Amino acid sequence: MKFRSLLLPALGALGLSLAALEPALAQDAAAPTVNKGDTAWMLVSTILVILMTIPGLALFYGGLVRTKNMLSVLMQVFAVFSLVTILWVAYGYSLAFTSGGEGVGAFIGGFSKAFLAGVTTDSTADTFTKGVAIPEMVFIAFQLTFAAITPALIVGAFAERIKFSAVMLFTALWVTVVYFPIAHMVWFSEGYLFGLGALDFAGGTVVHINSGVAGLMGALLVGKRIGYGRDLLAPHSLTLTFVGACLLWVGWFGFNAGSNLEATGGAALALLNTIVAPAAAGLAWMGVEALGKGKASLLGIASGAVAGLVAITPAAGLAGPMGSIVLGLVAGVVCYYAVTAVKNALGYDDALDVFGIHGVGGIVGAIGTGIVAAPSLGGYGVGEYSIGGQVWTQIVAVAVTLVWTGIGSLVLFKITDLIVGLRVTQDAEREGLDLADHGERAYNY
């Protein structure tokens, strides 16, 4: 009001009225501007997601394999991250976050920003869901980390028996055919699932169901490890796995709270949920394991916490803290039985339980988001919220992701097998991939 009273005399002296300026003022007020605090938060979040991949995921996976395959897993995660980084800036960002044109725009973008054409330090990103203005380069870097960690998650499913060349070729094909289109469908304003109203705050479908299903396809096609079900294939260092799990949890704050895209109460909500959900899931896994086996294990509580992180990802900025705890409890129990009873019954060798934790946890989280986001249950869903309607939309999003990545991954594994072959020789597998593929040992005594 004070500003208005000071402005009126000045306008009068110029022969203008406030009414004449109202449209321009409204337009200016509606246009988002870059905020240094938001930019700083997104830079930190980007770095945190890199931390959860290298070294977090690498150490988590590395500790779970046998000594002779430790370096191979570290190498695969590091190389996949590096490869996808280059592909993302070359054409991935453009395919995921630009208009694809009539007929295909609901499923894939175009090449208008290939090799980051038109991107400068002054360009801002239309963030597609919130209208927040941040430098486009920051948005590109943040989304790059999501694209890079997703195929890195896959390698745990067929660890200890796949060729390094196959990992690299499959990754290049997979992010192009599977990941970039799914990211476009879910997070771009013209995307098919975005248009349906599917909720995925930070990647339940895009990252976790996507990687989990691809990992399952790979495990089935590559086949079981030599001695699976007969020999002891125990983790060589649960200490390293514990360190990796802790780094994953810390890095996940960038993953989830960063997906708010601005440093506001929404980011604080996502951060709090990313604390309470995995805590609940870890305790739930520990509880059912203790009841079933008589002892609670470090691997169990760490695996449960990761399952909780996976489940809360699509709901991080949409659920209330109490709903997040419930979602974590459910994920901990369901994922425990997925990696024990279900996996044992079906007999597939998902070496590091990528499908059981990321695939199943992602499905639990994606569908559960439709429930915990309801305002009537303490959530932060907007509009005329219908739990039944939203849950159905979430189921459709899960189904589309399952079909797209399931069929796509199966075909791409077959193509990779024809070109370079998927599996190492029996001699190489017995020797260990550290020496067979890389000529190195993790430990020299």
UniProtKB/TrEMBL annotation:
- Any GO MF annotation of the entry: ammonium channel activity
Domain Ammonium transporter AmtB-like residues, every copy: 40-443
Q: Where does the secretion signal sit in this chain?
A: 1-26
Q: Which InterPro entries match?
A: Ammonium/urea_transptr (IPR029020), Ammonium_transpt (IPR001905), Ammonium_transpt_CS (IPR018047), NH4_transpt_AmtB-like_dom (IPR024041), RhesusRHD (IPR002229)
What are the UniProt keywords, alphabetically?
Ammonia transport, Cell membrane, Membrane, Signal, Transmembrane, Transmembrane helix, Transport
Gene Ontology cellular component? Answer: plasma membrane
Q: What is its main location?
A: membrane
Record flagged with keyword Transmembrane: yes
Q: Record's superkingdom?
A: Bacteria
Q: Where in the cell is it found?
A: Cell membrane
Which segments cross the bilayer?
42-61, 73-91, 137-159, 166-189, 201-221, 233-255, 267-286, 298-316, 322-339, 351-371, 391-413
For whether the record's keyword set contains Transmembrane helix, the answer is yes
How does the UniProt record describe the way this protein sits in the membrane?
Multi-pass membrane protein
PANTHER family in the cross-refs = AMMONIUM TRANSPORTER MEP2 (PTHR43029:SF10)
The record's similarity note reads: Belongs to the ammonia transporter channel (TC 1.A.11.2) family.
Q: What is this protein called?
A: Ammonium transporter
The organism's lineage is: Bacteria, Pseudomonadati, Pseudomonadota, Alphaproteobacteria, Hyphomicrobiales
